[in-house]
Structure formats: structure tokens, C-alpha cells
Design a protein that fits this description.
With 671 residues, this protein is of the alpha/beta class. Among the domains are: 60 residues, no CATH class; 56 residues, no CATH class; 45 residues, no CATH class. A 15-stranded parallel beta sheet has the order 1-2-3-4-5-6-7-11-12-13-14-15-16-18-17. Strand 13, helix 17 and strand 14 form a beta-alpha-beta unit.
Length: 671
């Protein structure tokens, strides 16, 4: 061996310590040769002590496990090579591709009612694209930052997701809130005040100066159906939204007069305001909204105001509205039970000496007053296009006389539910000054006569007598007319209106004197004019017989169907589905005319019965086919299923037989 020691006891001191063995191979060989000359000495010494050092100890052990896989570099071109703006554009195109795919399916005719009702098609178009976009946030942290980038979430419309968890909504708003200009939370009944406070905090941007208040960039807010909110949480959102233009708070009980005061102070850019059916709001709040602008010497920018069901409205408030809202185009005053004829007169009245370029001077005859009175009246010419006065029970046709010559741009006029207080004179006076009228709702106007229809029927003049295209005749642009329960209107007046109004698309005349020939004439004219979604309502019209409806069944449909998942429970019949029922008409074909009569509803019932019969037949055949190999399957007409408890012991008695194929009885079996 290249190393050796004597046989004496090992010294205890450090100086006499055994030398460190030589680990060099060449030195060990040389030392071994020298030891041969002293062989005698080796024989007289005791046994040597071998050093515990092994040659393997000079090998440096590896620091890593040999079984650990060698890491390979992963190349991610999307993450590593593309700039961030390009990545965001790719995600934008993802949502856009789903919209284009949905539009293409509709244009190609591949979208049917049955496909739309399937659970996999619950979200289509943009809604489906948004869902897929959110799923991509699970890929990685970098993708999550891209998905929730504010450039992709300028609009947050989650109406299609009413059960969206609040943490998911908060996650989107917390990362993209500063970029959002639109937020639509319609139908989110579980949205709590605390959650709205958190969302409001995330929507705010940091102020430029330390003394300024943090505000949002919101321009459109829709909280319809968010019934769990409180007044404080709502006001906190409105105070921090100075750029707000469109606000919908329909049906919220937390809205009160203070809400209108805050809107007047902090939201001066409002263009559209919907406060319909807010139970704790009255005319005092509207007065605060108007007086606030008047005190500043300003006029409101409102173009749309909906205050259906407002209480305690007075002439003074209506006069202030007319002065402070010169740009108003849509006004909904339906179900305001305190509204009088004088209130509408105050809305359009101006002092005679006031020289307003948007006003007109009228005589007593022109506004429906004493013809012998020489008094002049100045009236404001409004920009109203849509006026709703339905179910204002204190109004009469005098209200229409007060509006004559003041609404020349009127297109939609609703005055339903007035009853016998609505007569011809005032109504005709106003309609004669509305050449652009497109829709009129006079339901339940029992005392109107043929004179109203004649005022809406255009006269076919010769080319030399025709007026310029800029001022059409009254009735030339009429598209929708509702005269249900107008029992004094004759069939001849309806027929003349149908033939002379070239754009008439919808006629609701239930409980009138309409006959079957008039109904057929409407259907044929609507089909020849190629009108989409045309319809006629003739329920409880005694002159309309079953044969009259059957004769035009090839051109009609009983309901106005549409292809969407929301229409699943309505079970519309679509010819594209090829159900082969043998009954019914295509309810989703917009070229067919919708005819609503008693006999039309029978068609709907016939389709439902045919579907039930077909479903039961298929179920019975499938059950019979599953036990066809059983030799004893036809011995007993038992109705219980073969997989019922105990059915394995008596498969013949439990299997369905051929007698069950056309048997309409289904459900529990009486033992």
C-alpha cells in the first residue's frame, strides 16, 4: 500500500499525529518501491491501519439530482415578440369575430328557433365573445393583465349575465374602472350597497389636485332592477359622475327628490333621464331639477325625459319645464294622474310680448277657443318627437287643442286609456298640424268617429297639386295605428285608411266593426308592399270569421316570433327547423303578416298539441325499441318502465307495449 503506519499506539498530541495519506497515484508507486528494501522491517512491525479514505471520495458529487429533467427554454411568440397594443387588438378581434359569426348565421339562414333555444346558444354574438375573453384570463398572469386592460372595457354591459358573481364583477371594475364610460347593470337584483361603494371607488380616477374630488369617466349608467341599493350608495355614484349624459333609474324606490337636486348640481350634461315609476319621487324633485338650472341662468340639455307615474304635478312646474328644456324631444307623462289640460297649455305658453324665434302667434280659433275672440296667443314651438299621455285620466281632447301648432315634428303620440273624454274636435286639430306622425295610440277612445281616420287618410292629389316632399300630407308616413275599442269607427273608414296610407304596417283594431274582407285587404296590401313584421289585431271583431282568416293563412302567422334563447318558453314554430308537424304557420318569417284573432290562437294550441303527441310517440317508440330483444315483451300491456324497481324479475310486464304508442295518458299509475 502507498501508505503505512507503525504498530505502536497512536500518539495523542497533534505533533505526533498520523500524516495525511498521499492521494497521488504516482507518489504512491514510488513510495512502494522504497518499502521493498526494508521488507524485514515490515515483517517485524505490527499490522497497519488502513485509511478510511476511498478513491471515490476525490470525485466531486453532483449538486443536482441526475433524474431532474433538463429545463428547455419555452418560446412564446405572442407574449415575447408582439407589442402590447397588438395583443389588445387581437383580443378585440376575438369579440368582434363572435359578433360577425352570429350575424353571418342569421344572414345565411342557419339560425333557427330550436338552435337558439339550446343551452349552448344561450350567449351569442358579443355576449359570447365577452365570456370567451374572460376565460382567457385563466391562462397566465400576463394574459390576465391583457384581458382586463381598460382599453377592452370601455363599456361594461352585463345585462345578459344577471347571475354574475359580485367578485367577478369587482375584478373587472377594479382593473378597468378608470377607462369605463358605460355601465349597464340591468337586472342585478343582488347588487348590494357595499358592492356599489366598492365599484364606485374602482371607477374613480385620481384627482389632479389634492383638494379635488375623485370622479369617474361614466357617461351612461343603467341601474334598472337593482332593487337592493340604498339612497346613499346611489347618491355617492351620481356625485362622482360629472360627465353623465344618460341615466336610467326606472322603478327604483331609492330615488327621491334629493336625487334630482344632486343631478341638477353635479350632472349638468344630462341628455336622457329615465325616472319612470319611482314611487318616492314627486313633482318637488322635478321642480328642484328645473329651478337649479334657472338659478344658474342655464338651460337643461335634456332631450329625453321619462317621468311616468309622477305625483303632484302642477301648471307651474310644467311652465318651468317648457322654459328650462328647449331641446326636449321625448316626454313621457303617462300615468300622471294629476295632469290637467291647463298643464299642457302652460307647457307651451309664452307671454305675447316675448320675442322668441322658436314661437308662433295663434288666434283663438286656431287653439280651439271662442272663434269670435280676437285675442292673440303666443305658443312655443317645441322639438317633441315622442309624447306619451296615456292613462292621464283628467285629460280630454282640449289638451290636444292646446298642443296644436306646437308639435310640428311629432312622430309618436300615445293617448291610450282616456276613455270617453277624448273626442274628435281637439284631436283632429292637433293631428292636422303633425305631418310627420308615424304612430298613434288611441286605445279605449270610445267616442272618436270616422272623422279622426279621415284626418289621417292622405288624399291622392295630381302631380301639379302635390306639395313639396319636405311637407308630406298627414298620414303619408303613418306606420302604426291603435284604435282598439273605438266602437263608433266604421269598416269603410278603416278600409279607406288601409288603402291610402302607403306605409301602414301595424293596425290594432280589436273590438271594432272591422270585417273579414278588410282584414284580407290589409294582409294582401302589406304582402304586396313587402313590409317586414306587419300585423293586424282583430280580436273580438264579430265581422271577422274563421273562413276569412283561413283564406289568407298562406300569407299570415299567428304570432310575431323571434329566434333567441329568451324565447325558448314561447316555443315559436320555425320552418327552418323542419319539425314536420303538419299544422301551424312559420312564426319567425318576417315576410308573413301577423294576424291576431280568436282563430289564430287555435293554431297555436294545435301546434302545441302536435308537439306533445310527437314527443310522446317518440318516447314510446324508444322505450319499445330498448326491450325489443325480450321474448316476453309483448305479453303484457304494463305501463311501468323496465328499469323500475323489480323490473328485472318481470321484464315482460314492465316493458312498454305497442298499445302505449298512441296512448295520451302519461304520468302516475293508479295501483
Amino acid at each position: 500500500m502507498p501508505w503505512k503506519t507503525d504498530s505502536k499506539a497512536r500518539p495523542k498530541s497533534g505533533a505526533d499525529c498520523i500524516p495525511v495519506p498521499v492521494l497521488s497515484y504516482e507518489a504512491g508507486i514510488a513510495k512502494g518501491l522504497d518499502s521493498r528494501s526494508s521488507a524485514r522491517v515490515l515483517r517485524t512491525q505490527g499490522r497497519s491501519y488502513s485509511c478510511p479514505v476511498s478513491p471515490l471520495d476525490i470525485v466531486i458529487p453532483p449538486t443536482l439530482d441526475v433524474f431532474t429533467p433538463i429545463p428547455l427554454p419555452v418560446h412564446r411568440p405572442f407574449d415575447d415578440l408582439l407589442p402590447r397594443e397588438v395583443k389588445l387588438h387581437v383580443f378585440k378581434l376575438l369579440v368582434l369575430s363572435h359578433e360577425q359569426e352570429y350575424e353571418k348565421r342569421i344572414a345565411d339562414g342557419n339560425w333557427t328557433a330550436l338552435k337558439a333555444s339550446a343551452s349552448r346558444n344561450r350567449w351569442v354574438g358579443k355576449d359570447k365573445g365577452v365570456r370567451e375573453l374572460v376565460k382567457f384570463s385563466r391562462v397566465s398572469k400576463s394574459w390576465r393583465s391583457l384581458v382586463f386592460d381598460g382599453q377592452l372595457w370601455s363599456e361594461l354591459a352585463v345585462t345578459a349575465f344577471p347571475k354574475l358573481p359580485l367578485p367577478a364583477l369587482s375584478r373587472v371594475v377594479s382593473q378597468s374602472g378608470a377607462f369605463m364610460s358605460t355601465i349597464d347593470l340591468t337586472g342585478h337584483t343582488t347588487l348590494s350597497p357595499e358592492s356599489l361603494f366598492k365599484l364606485n371607488h374602482s371607477l374613480c380616477i385620481s384627482p389632479a389636485l389634492p383638494d379635488n374630488q375623485a370622479v369617474t369617466q361614466l357617461k351612461n349608467i343603467n341601474l334598472q332592477g337593482c332593487t337592493a341599493l340604498t339612497t346613499r350608495s346611489l347618491h355617492d355614484l351620481l356625485i362622482r359622475s360629472p360627465h353623465l349624459e344618460n341615466l336610467c333609474l326606472k322603478g327604483l324606490s331609492v330615488v327621491n327628490n334629493t336625487t334630482c337636486e344632486l343631478l341638477s348640481t353635479h350632472c349638468r350634461s344630462l341628455v336622457s333621464l329615465n325616472l319612470n315609476r319611482c314611487l318616492n319621487l314627486n313633482a318637488g324633485g322635478l321642480h328642484s331639477l328645473v329651478s337649479g338650472a334657472s338659478a344658474r341662468g342655464e338651460r337643461l340639455r335634456l332631450k329625453e325625459l321619462r317621468i311616468s307615474g309622477l305625483k303632484y304635478i302642477t301648471d307651474t312646474i310644467m311652465a318651468a319645464m317648457g322654459k328650462a328644456m328647449p331641446h326636449l324631444e321625448v316626454l313621457d307623462l303617462s300615468y300622471t294622474r294629476d295632469l290637467h289640460n291647463s298643464a299642457l297649455d302652460a307647457f307651451v305658453s309664452l307671454p305675447l310680448e316675448e320675442d322668441d324665434p322658436n314661437s308662433i302667434v295663434l288666434t283663438s280659433r286656431e287653439i280651439g277657443r271662442d272663434p269670435g275672440d280676437v285675442t292673440k296667443y303666443r305658443r312655443r314651438v317645441t322639438r317633441l318627437r315622442h309624447l306619451s299621455l296615456s292613462h292621464c285620466l283628467l285629460l280630454t281632447d282640449i289638451a290636444c287643442s292646446n298642443l296644436a301648432h306646437c308639435v310640428p315634428r311629432l312622430e309618436l303620440f300615445e293617448m291610450a286609456g282616456i276613455g270617453g273624454h277624448l273626442n274628435d274636435e281637439g284631436l283632429i286639430r292637433m293631428l292636422n298640424t303633425t305631418p310627420h306622425i308615424r304612430k298613434i295610440d288611441l286605445e279605449d277612445a270610445m267616442d272618436i268617429s270616422d272623422a279622426v281616420l279621415r284626418s289621417l287618410t292622405p288624399v291622392n292629389h295630381s302631380p301639379s297639386q302635390r306639395k313639396s316632399p319636405e311637407t308630406p300630407q298627414v298620414g303619408q308616413e303613418l306606420e302604426h295605428l291603435v284604435v282598439s275599442y273605438a266602437v263608433n269607427i266604421t269598416n269603410e273608414a278603416l278600409l279607406g285608411l288601409i288603402r291610402n296610407c302607403p306605409r301602414l304596417r301595424v293596425l290594432e283594431a280589436d273590438s271594432t266593426r272591422m270585417t273579414g274582407k278588410t282584414l284580407q285587404e290589409f294582409v294582401r296590401l302589406a304582402h304586396s308592399r313587402r313590409m317586414a313584421d306587419a300585423g293586424v289585431v282583430a280580436i273580438d271583431c264579430r265581422g271577422v270569421s274563421e273562413s276569412a282568416v283561413t283564406d289568407v293563412s298562406k300569407l299570415t302567422r299567428p304570432r310575431l316570433g323571434w329566434r333567441a334563447h329568451e324565447a325558448k318558453k314561447l316555443a315559436y314554430l320555425d320552418a327552418r327547423d323542419d319539425e314536420d308537424l303538419g299544422v301551424g304557420q312559420d312564426e319567425c318569417d318576417d315576410k308573413r303578416v301577423v294576424v291576431k284573432t280568436f282563430y289564430s290562437w287555435e293554431t297555436v294550441d294545435a301546434v302545441r298539441v302536435a308537439r306533445d303527441r310527437k314527443r310522446k310517440t317518440r318516447r314510446a317508440l324508444n322505450s319499445s325499441g330498448s326491450s325489443a330483444e325480450d321474448y316476453f315483451s309483448s305479453k303484457s300491456p304494463g305501463r311501468s318502465k323496465w328499469w323500475a324497481p323489480g323490473g328485472r324479475r318481470r321484464s315482460g310486464n314492465n316493458s312498454p307495449s305497442l298499445l302505449d304508442v298512441n296512448n295520451d295518458r302519461d304520468g302516475c299509475t293508479i295501483m
